[in-house]
Amino acid sequence: MNKDLSAYWKRNLTYMVILLSVWFIVSFGCGILFVDALDSISLGGFKLGFWFAQQGSMYVFVILIFVYVYLMNKLDKEFDVDEK
Amino acid sequence: MGIQGWTFLIVGLSFALYIGIAIWSRAGSTKEFYVAGGGVSSLANGMATAADWMSAASFISMAGLISFMGRDGAQYLMGWTGGYVMLALLLAPYLRKFGKFTVPDFIGDRYYSQTARIVAVVCAIFVSFTYVAGQMRGVGVVFSRFLGLSIEMGVVVGMIIVLIYAVLGGMKGITYTQVAQYCVLIFAYLVPAIFISILVTGNPIPQIGFGGSTTEAYGGQYLLDKLDGLHEQLGFAAYTAGTKSTIDIFFITFALMAGTAGLPHVIVRFFTVPGVRDARKSVGYALVFITILYTTAPAVAAFARVNMIETIAGKPYADAPAWVSNWEKTGLFKFEDKNGDGVMNYVADKGANEVTIDRDIMVLANPEIANLPDWVIGLVAAGGLAAALSTAAGLLLVISTAVSHDLLKRAIMPNISEKQELLYARIAATVAVVIAGYFGINPPGFVAQVVAFAFGLACSSFFPAIFLGIFDKRTNMQGAISGMLVGIAFTAAYIIYFKFVNPEMNNADHWLFGVSPEGIGTLGMILNFAVTLIVSRLTPPPPADVQQMVEDIRVPRGAGAAHVH
Known about the structure:
The complex is a heterodimer of chains A (84) and B (565). With 84 residues, chain A is mainly alpha-helical. Chain A has one domain. Chain A has 3 helices and 2 strands; from the N terminus they run ααββα. In chain A, helix 1 (3-33) packs antiparallel against helix 3 (48-78). The longest helix of chain A is centred in the N-terminal third of the chain and has 31 residues, at 3-33. Chain A is elongated and about 50 Å long. Chain B is mainly α. Chain B has a domain at 1-66 and 125-223 and 231-238 and 282-444. In chain B, 72% of the residues lie in helices and 2% in strands. In chain B, helix 6 (103-110) packs antiparallel against helix 7, helix 7 packs antiparallel against helix 19 and helix 19 (447-471) packs antiparallel against helix 20 (477-501). Chains A and B meet through helix 1, strand 2 and helix 3 of A and helix 5, helix 10, helix 11 and helix 13 of B.
């Protein structure tokens, strides 16, 4: 792998780790592991932990994918490996 | 025009539409048959993926399931959507760059081994058949309930429709019918959900009404507080509190996520878009379309639960609304007056409880509960059929491709021409439809039991093999094959032991680390990862051309259309 490509791959992995950490925190964190603690906070008629488990985590998933699409399209251009 | 008239009309129109699309989009080459020619736009593919993914179970049963599970139902919501994040970040763009037709294609080429290819083919076929039997059954049930046909007749009609567009159009026909089916099913899901939301909370957006206050008629307090209160009165655990152990929910959710990301009929959809960039974006669109239904479902679950308890619990049977007796006829609602007081005692205590409610009612009876016009009921029937048929078609395509392409062309008779391969693909699809129909009419008693299998196997076999194939260049044939075999053997043995050999031991006291068979795929996956990584490092690295291929799939440039071998 030439130097440019290994830098490209490293950046890709960094994005991936950051986005997957968010993915893990909202679903397994807020929706499962810390759900009871979060339930003491209210969001309108929702308990916060319950909201993350049945609504919030899914909205965050959608946002994560589009953030990834945006970051990767920019990265592809920066390293000139985008599809022509 | 009555309910039946409307249902026949709407279902008939939707079927005519599907067949019209199939005739317009006939497949002329294997590339069109397997991956729709590789030219589907990311938006259309996103819609098709959403219809492909959301089955009869998502449409008919999920809201009811959540309704009875309360907060624990989140395992399905997060599990079946979170997998798309893994798919977008870890698998789809790279598999698209790899640019062949199927999952066994990737496994076979990346691990330069026919054994690996065959293991993948067997898993893909097993997983898909497990699923498809349930879909055909769903078609039969909808037909019998709404159109008064027998279940057998319903399954046969469903088989003929799928046969026409899957065999004729292949992936191309399936893709464009799935787009139409998505529109039908989401419309059919949202209309009653919006009406119910207005009825219960006064808010037309179910996702917001879910966290809002109820209307005067329902007492005015927050919907979820009211539900917790009702549950407490009847002796159930609070709706917003979980009853399963944290570790079990954790493992089940993870198994559903990784299983989703590893299911061949989902992965293959991302081979149909023009390039890597489209593949990434397309997963995003797919999740948007899925999330529209998946965030509505828990709201519907809560509304239906409130309605159900308010109308039934402790009320005299003689005053029950008409829909109760309608659904009693189908056997989905049962009232057994144990103490002879004429009151429907619906309570948590099994000894005193007199009412049995099938979870499917929660979606199917919603239009009647909310007094919606007859055409809405016809729409719900068409929606359920769209959900079942679209998923069935996607699965049948995986089965026919696995046979004609992976088994015949790539393994047994590599010299057949494209025309012959296409013919075999159509024959395989036909045979698969017939077998699926047979299981739809004579469902093996264990259909529900083996759903855990589909996700467990995808999670413990495909997911690690594909992930490491992309992210770890050092993973070799020996590592991948031993990892897949260990993962499958462990997961299958655990599920078989608790579901078939010793079902009476199937409880938390006997489970390994307190993990139920539904969640064991996660442990199988961890084992697979460990074995693959260790064995790979004790055996020679993969050949140079394979390592080159891995480097190549990591960058988008040069993706082009899917190769014809």
